Amino acid sequence: xxxxxxxxxxxxxxxxxxxxxxxxxxxxxxxxxxxxxxxxxxxxxxxxxxxxxxxxxxxxxxxxxxxxxxxxxxxxxxxxxxxxxxxxxxxxxxxxxxxxxxxxxxxxxxxxxxxxxxxxxxxxxxxxxxxxxxxxxxxxxxxxxxxxxxxxxxxxxxxxxxxxxxxxxxxxxxxxxxxxxxxxxxxxxxxxxxxxxxxxxxxxxxxxxxxxxxxxxxxxxxxxxxxxxxxxxxxxxxxxxxxxxxxxxxxxxxxxxxxxxxxxxxxxxxxxxxxxxxxxxxxxxxxxxxxxxxxxxxxxxxxxxxxxxxxxxxxxxxxxxxxxxxxxxxxxxxxxxxxxxxxxxxxxxxxxxxxxxxxxxxxxxxxxxxxxxxxxxxxxxxxxxxxxxxxxxxxxxxxxxxxxxxxxxxxxxxxxxxxxxxxxxxxxxxxxxxxx
Length: 436
Fold this sequence. Notes:
Layout lengths: L2 E9 L5 H11 L3 E12 L4 E6 L2 H12 L6 E4 L5 H11 L6 E3 L16 H9 L5 E2 L3 H8 L6 H12 L5 E4 L8 E8 L2 E8 L5 E2 L1 H14 L4 H17 L9 E2 L4 H6 L2 H18 L12 E4 L9 E4 L4 E3 L2 E3 L4 E3 L3 H11 L7 E6 L2 H9 L4 E3 L11 H13 L5 E4 L8 E6 L2 H12 L1
Parallel strand pairs: 1-2, 1-4, 4-5, 5-6, 6-7, 10-11, 18-19
Antiparallel strand pairs: 2-3, 7-8, 8-9, 12-13, 12-17, 13-16, 14-15, 17-20, 19-20
């Protein structure tokens, strides 16, 4: 079993620090060992106190791990003081495993996590034995002495930090503006842009997850550049599957993709079973000319491939309603986009089905107490996907995710109702209410 070591502070709310690091290692199939440098009393809103661990106890923990396990990589996070840096450098110097240094100076909630003398100790003693250093914008400014206002400033800061000895520098771009979250990797005298879509979220633990993910990939044998790109993709997943545990910022979820993928079989079975019931439940007036699509998304879905749909459609065959295909992820794309848009407002609304729009059907929905939202295709902006734009427009208009969203079509576009629910069973329950 591969073993990676995190040397970091403990976060009492469990969203950052060594608690986040251990989750990342576990998500990569790596056993995580830990050395605690400080105990913080913090939550998603503030850090109320910090108790640094005496250096001799830091050394004691480190010695206990190093004498017993073969360490494949090390990640350092919150080190807090010069004395703790000296303690770990005295023990790590001479080992061949890669060391990832996340120079934590400030918590995600904005509170300081270091003493003044930490900066010089990091630059003079820890950076020279590091494989990679991963500062954010404010940390890079402090460590390099360069004020960062542009991409050229970022390059200059990376070069300055690299002069202290690490093999690579990754300047994280989460604190910059723009549609893309752009990190800057400097390695072997060259710069590489490491980008992902920017998610509109302030989160707790993102920096910890990125650096520990790099350490995890290095432990598995990747080179530094590949480890950084793989870690960047993993952080995007962790942020996209974030969740709330308190009253402040949300926490990243390093286990999110694993939790989501574990549900694939269950989602397929539940959708297939519900689709069979639809065949006997609905009558022809509810079947659109284009047929019926039916979808069910994985928890925390962010992509079409996370949504299971019908292959083919439920249609009228010889006067009866039938579905002759199977189910698969990525199918029923139009209705899948409805669900993905709805989940941005309510992550629990993971299922949808499209139905024929008629005045009689709308009346039946209203009589059954269904909440309705609608959008007009004639108002759709150019270069926008109709289902995503229309769903968002309808939800924003009513202020919540309604039971059904409809539009009256346009040239070449059939009018349509989309019934939404938390799962296929709730869709069936709503349909029975409407039909009765």
